[in-house]
Amino acid sequence: MNIVPMTPAHWPAVCAIYAEGIATGNATFTTDLPTWADWDAAHLAVCRLVAVDENGAVLGWAALSPVSGRCVYAGVAEVSVYIGEAARGQGVGRALLAALAAESERQGLWTLQAGIFPENAASLRLHEAQGFRQVGRRERIGQMRGQWRDTLLLERRSAVVGATPATA
């Protein structure tokens, strides 16, 4: 498996994996697949990664979205990580999230956050294993198919970007 930058050519496979996540009912509030143009506009131009196998088939993807348009939050982004059904449980998510965190630091981001449904135990374990910590529960934050859903808010603070320098 290799982690490489996502390109528009990856979109059909990325979209198919996104559809698999949507179908679980526990990955996102999104119910309709976006077009490439809409997805592209909603995500940062940097920190877009895909995991590919030895044949170049996409196994999973990770990307960041801005949390706010305010300049003070320029170093904070929301994580999306999706793994294809056939590749789940094989370390793809761990590799993608680790690479995403490292790339986010190279790009100057100091905080990554994730909103995860409490029922998505695998995603919670994945994020916590990569240094995310739960900072809150957003109760009845949104409706999905007529039902209110909670999300858990997790964050990962960079130990490199924005860290307070040691005093002498």
Provide the fold topology:
Elements: E1 2-5, H1 11-24, H2 36-42, E2 49-52, E3 58-66, E4 76-83, H3 92-106, E5 111-116, H4 121-129, E6 133-144, E7 147-157
Parallel strand pairs: 4-5
Antiparallel strand pairs: 1-2, 2-3, 3-4, 5-7, 6-7
Describe the structure.
This protein is α+β, with helices and mostly antiparallel strands and 168 residues long. The chain has helices at residues 11-24, 36-42, 92-106, 121-129; strands at residues 2-5, 49-52, 58-66, 76-83, 111-116, 133-144, 147-157. Helices cover 27% and strands 32% of the residues. A hairpin with a 5-residue loop joins β2 (49-52) and β3. The chain contains 4 helices and 7 strands. The protein has a 7-stranded mixed sheet. The chain has one domain (2-157): Aminopeptidase.
Any idea what the radius of gyration is? 16 Å
Question: Quick one: CATH class?
Answer: Alpha Beta
Structural class: alpha+beta
Number of domains: 1
**CATH-derived topology:** Aminopeptidase
Count of individual beta strands: 7
Mean pLDDT figure:
95
Uncertain regions: pLDDT < 50 for 5+ in a row? none
Structure summary:
With 168 residues, this protein is α+β, with helices and mostly antiparallel strands. It has 4 helices and 7 strands, in the order βααβββαβαββ. 27% of the residues lie in helices and 32% in strands.
Key traits:
168 residues; alpha+beta; Aminopeptidase; seven-stranded mixed sheet; 4 helices; 27% helix; globular
